[in-house]
Amino acid sequence: MSVSGIVPQRTEAAADAWVCNTLDTERVDFVDARVVADVDAKPNVYYGDPVEELKILYYTGEVKDPNLFECGTVETRRDEGTDEKDGWTYTRPADLSTVKAVKVRVSRENGYLSSLPQSFFYLVVEQRIHDDVQIGDDVWTWTSVPWTGIYDAGWELDLPAKRYYDRTTFEDGDVIDAQYASPGVLTDGVRYPYTGPGRDLLRVVGSLPVVAKDVAQPEYGPGDEADYTIRFGLESEIANMPNDTVVIEDTLAPGMTYVEGSAATEPTVSKDAEGRQVLTWTVEDVVPNIDVLKNNPYTINYKATMPKDAKAGAVFTNTVVASSQGNSRRAEVKVTVPRAGYTSIKKHVEKPVVDTLTNGVAANTWTIDLTSKDPEKSTVTDVIDVLPYDGDDKGSKFSGTLVVKGVEAGEGATVYSTTAEAFTIDEDPNAKVNGKTGEPSDMWTKGVQENATAIRVVTKADFPYGDAQTITVKTELKDAKSGDVVVNKAVGRADHTKMRMRTSAQFVVLTPVELTVKKVWKDAEGEALTDTPDAVKVQLMRTQGEKIEPVGEKVDLSAENDWKYTFTKLPAMVDGEPVSYTIAEDEVEDFTSEVAVDKVGENYSVIVTNTAELDPTPDPTPDPTPTPTPTPKPDKPLPLTGAQTYALMVVAAGAMALGVAFLRYARRR
Predict the structure, then answer these.
(1) Rounded to the nearest 5°, which phi and psi values hold at 185?
(2) Is residue 152 part of a domain?
(3) Last residue of a domain, one of 182, 203, 224
(4) pLDDT (mean) for 474-502
(5) Domain end (from 203, 228, 246)
(6) CA-to-CA distance for 663 and 669, rounded, in angstroms?
(7) Residue 540 main-chain phi, psi, to 5 deg
(8) Distance CA 42, CA 533 (A)
(9) How far is CA 300 from the centre of its chain?
(10) Contact in structure between 76 and 148 (CB atoms under 8 Å)
(11) Domain span at residue 326?
(12) Secondary structure of residue 325 in the 3-state scheme
């Protein structure tokens, strides 16, 4: 959108005012033009309703140089009938791309149509930039007003007009030199040399790529797989920018290699002139102005392997470049090979829970894993595994006998054993009694002795960063019982890692349990009930932590199975957690139910007692109220005599006395 303003002449005899806007048709197409002058328009005056009384003239003729276009010749005052000439027309062309300029006449008489100060009018011209215009291209628009005489207005650029619009040199006031940089703002590198009043310039901008790169941790050892994350997108200060394509080129540090399949979308992998791997992703239709660091859908995660010969302290820098619309931005991240390291030792047991015994024997296998995280390789590792015994400081609790059935280790390993009392053995390979790391003392004998109380494995082999060594110890616990706890501990050293390493693991013996449920029927007085329902269904329930859930299908209890059932081979632990069991019964009408759970050893005994409910006592039926017999009336009443009156009074008094007596009796009762 371009906007040009004009004020109508105030002198009655002066020519009409005009304003003209010339388009940069090399890079834009005309869309619309209107004259606005409403001070109350929202969001501003430029978006107001058009002033219909002021008609637009469209120019579809030839424009050799829009920078020098004069918008016409001479305009005659108030003679609008002669305006349509020299390529100008009031008729809006069907093909808007042919419009090269627009202008409007504003007469003094039309000043009242404006509510703006000084009766200002604006010519608003909307234009659409061509699709093939590139980012950074210059787009111009030119505004002209004619010199104004008493009767006529001329468009030619005389000296005053040229100076006002900065279209001339001051040395030669009659010549316009389009290549001369006037006192306006210099615009090097574009098609026209300067801007100024009536000469507006905009540059085409796109959205800029943004990119950030992270690594999961700052240090990785030789041969490690580093986890990288690339976040990218587009940003622009202009709203509603179109989606565009972003190309990501990530250059790995020398010696690093991409882990195939580690990215959700596989990159194109190439090498640069220095032999470094370059990972390339092309992502289309990227939406601009999405926060790169928060909830960004444009994220790439991948792994790259560190060189196995990387030296301690070496720094590896990875650089990523995001490109879009001719612009690029970059980010980098560094990882360092640690100068110091460690060797880890971990121990685990094949079966944390042994629930099956063979002739009273609980067989299990211990595994000891050593992993080097030291950038300087070791050449010797030494591990002592003191076998568990009842009541040891590790928490073992068993009454049977633990024996070693075999030890396996890697290439370069030698197995030793001792039969010394387990509680007297120092677990540190570097303890004086044990000799020193890699050199066992005389208390250690090669091979696995019968009744061995500790095992020692010395491995003499290169142990570089990232490598692992594995030792397996097969054991049997004889005379095992449910509830036995066996905790095994191992301590190791490597010649380059000075600190000793310790690990432990345990297993428990938990044989399957049984649950027997018994149904008891009682009458309302608590006596055995013989008249019972035919059958009732019960459900086995298991409790694990706070979770209670049914196990298996419901079971029928009836007289046929003596109202009894036993659930067998129930695991004492589930997913490494202890569990307990109980019974839930389907509701039996007219009976109350009570469940009693008793644990006998490792097994459960459940008694479900059903007691008949008392029949409710019916309310008594009231006696019917008799219908009173009416007193017969004499056919004709006789007059009372004095004696009769006295007798009646006596009777009445007696009746009153009886009534009082009745009331008093009722109250006492």
Answers:
(1) -75, 125
(2) yes
(3) 203
(4) 85
(5) 203
(6) 10
(7) -75, 130
(8) 86
(9) 15
(10) no
(11) 208-336
(12) coil
The Cα–Cα gap between 17 and 6 comes to: 7
Summarize pLDDT for 244-258 with one digit per residue, the tens.
999 999 999 999 999
Tens digits of residue pLDDT in 184-199: 677 778 888 777 777 8
Is the same domain home to 115 and 213? Answer: no
First to last CA, the chain: 109
Same domain (yes/no): 214, 330: yes
Residues facing residue 362 across a β-bridge: 477
Same domain, 359 and 320: no
User: 520 and 491 in one domain?
Assistant: no
In the 3-class helix/strand/coil scheme, how is 7-65 assigned residue by residue? CCCCCCCCCCEEEEEEECCCCEEEEEEEEECCCCCCCCHHHCCCCCCCCEEEECCCCCC
CATH of the domain at 253: 2.60.40.740
One domain, residues 325 and 421: no
Token pair of 451, please? 């009744």
In the predicted structure, residue 58 carries a pLDDT above the cut 50: yes
Pair 393, 348: CB distance under 8 Å: no
Residues 234 and 143 in one domain: no
Between β-strands 362-372 and 435-436, what pairing exists: parallel, antiparallel or unpaired? Answer: unpaired
Q: What is the pTM of this model?
A: 0.51
Confidence of residue 152 (pLDDT cuts 50, 70, 90): low
Total domain count, the chain? 4
The CA distance from 210 to 332, in Å, is 13
Three-class DSSP category at 94: coil
Indicate the DSSP class of residue 358.
Answer: B
Residue 34 lies in a domain: yes
* DSSP codes of every residue in 219-282: B--TT-EEEEEEEEEEE-SSTTPPPEEEEEEEEPPTT-EE-TT-SSSPPEEEE-TTS-EEEEEE
Q: What's the full length of the chain, in residues?
A: 669
Q: Is the pLDDT of residue 206 over 80?
A: yes
**Does one domain contain both 153 and 36?**
yes
Q: Is 110 left (phi over 0), alpha (psi -120 to 50) or beta?
A: alpha
Assess if residue 638 is contained within a domain.
no
Domain membership flag for residue 258: yes
Examine the domain organization and report whether 498 and 364 are in the same domain.
yes
